[in-house]
Design goal:
single chain; alpha/beta; Rossmann fold; Dihydrodipicolinate Reductase, domain 2; nine-stranded mixed beta sheet; six-stranded parallel beta sheet; 23% strand; globular; binds nicotinamide-adenine-dinucleotide
């Protein structure tokens, strides 16, 4: 009796001590390069602003994938990231030895977060290395590059998705639902703009045509093209566009501000603006029975939305964590990504049409 009650107390005490000791160990494991069961390993390629500010932190909140590795050309970044996120040396690559990632079973997904003109090369190399790929927006600098990327992933039997985080953001998802399901009737017009006043390094890759493929349209306008497509649920057929350049000394190689009008088969018109010289972040849809719209539409958070029935009410989410978790689930469940390479390609088709119209000054077929 005495012995049994002692054992029970001891057992309970030992159990609580053990779980206190185990919990931090589990969370350390989850945050480091050791795969928690069933989580897929992601390697980020390019540790610039978006990886550091958004993707690295988001990968601490993901459930189906985790930050397993990095690819960087800067040894000091490798050291910092390795220390911050407990990434083992075996999972750290540079641009020269990147292809040997093929031999690393800890890496399931390569996430390309490089200047736009480098997306194709690293997507193709990742697919050849047998990895699934997430590629940042815009997918590449041309439709033909997008086609090569899709073909490479198909040939390697790997999935390819684009970093279209807003498809996992509730306010934007509601705009898709209201528009595509014609909740307020047919869409008549869309007005959307995305831009900021560029105050960064005049020598940055974003201002170099060879690395960025273009300027504000590629970087910011792709969100507007996306929004016009996901609110209408249609593909635009014609475009008329024009360019404005108020700081030609800075934007010597790439576009600063572009205004464009997209015509959809239903008759809907989308008027969009992309800019490196105006602060814009709006999305408004005018339908037969009223207007629905977002402010802070394309931001990482802080969206507000209004419909003819009142304000939208949704929780704030970590868009990047949801986006990466969904892709991991697509792989685990062998399900197609809702934001596949083909979607990135369609956006590039529209972007190429917009540039054609800027050059010709005419309405162009997409
Ligand atoms: P960045 O300039 O901050 O980082 C680019 C990274 O690429 C750096 O680490 C740099 O060292 C590396 N790099 C490798 N080779 C390079 C070269 N030859 N020239 C320049 N840099 C080189 O850029 P970023 O803002 O992190 O953007 C990277 C990608 O992510 C772009 O495709 C961009 O459109 C995309 N992005 C997406 C979002 C989003 O919300 N989805 C937000 C920001 C950026």
């Amino acid at each position: 009796m005495k012995r049994s009650s002692y054992s029970r107390r001891r057992f309970i005490r030992d159990l609580s001590m053990a779980s206190a000791a185990i919990s931090p160990a589990i969370s350390t494991l989850a945050a480091c390069g050791v795969a928690p069961e069933k989580k897929l390993g992601i390697a980020l390629v390019g540790l610039g602003g978006y990886s550091s500010g958004q993707l690295g932190p988001a990968l601490q909140q993901t459930r189906n994938c985790y930050l397993a590795g990095i690819v960087t050309g800067t040894p000091s970044k490798a050291k910092d990231w390795s220390a911050r996120y407990n990434i083992p040396a075996a999972n750290i690559y540079n641009y020269e030895n990147f292809d040997s990632i093929a031999n690393n079973p800890a890496i399931d997904i390569v996430y390309v977060v490089l200047p736009i003109a480098m997306h194709k090369e690293y997507t193709v190399r990742a697919a050849k290395a047998g990895k699934h790929v997430i590629c940042e927006k815009p997918m590449a600098i041309s439709v033909s590059e997008c086609e090569e990327m899709i073909a490479a992933c198909r040939k390697a039997n790997r999935m390819l998705s684009i970093g279209y985080r807003l498809h996992f953001e509730p306010f934007n998802k509601e705009m898709m639902r209201l528009g595509q399901q014609k909740v307020y009737g047919k869409i008549l017009e869309i007005e959307a703009g995305n831009g900021y006043v560029y105050g960064g390094d005049p020598n940055a890759w974003r201002l170099k045509k060879a690395l960025a493929g273009g300027g504000s349209l590629m970087d910011m306008g792709v969100y507007v093209v996306q929004a016009a497509r996901y609110v209408t649920g249609e593909e635009p057929v014609y475009v008329k566009a024009s360019e404005e350049k108020l700081r030609p000394e800075l934007f010597t190689e790439v576009d600063e501000t572009i205004a464009f009008e997209l015509e959809f088969p239903s008759g809907a018109i989308a008027r969009g603006i992309s800019s490196y010289n105006r602060n814009l972040n709006n999305l408004k849809a005018k339908a037969e029975k009223g207007v629905f719209e977002l402010t802070a539409a394309y931001r990482y958070g802080g969206q507000t939305g209004y419909t003819p029935s009142g304000p939208m009410q949704f929780p704030q989410v970590n868009q990047q964590a949801l986006q990466m978790d969904d892709f991991a689930n697509c792989i685990l469940q062998n399900r197609r990504s809702p934001v596949p390479g083909e979607m990135g390609l369609l956006d590039l088709k529209v972007i190429e049409g917009i540039y054609r119209s800027v050059r010709s000054g005419k309405r162009e077929k997409i």
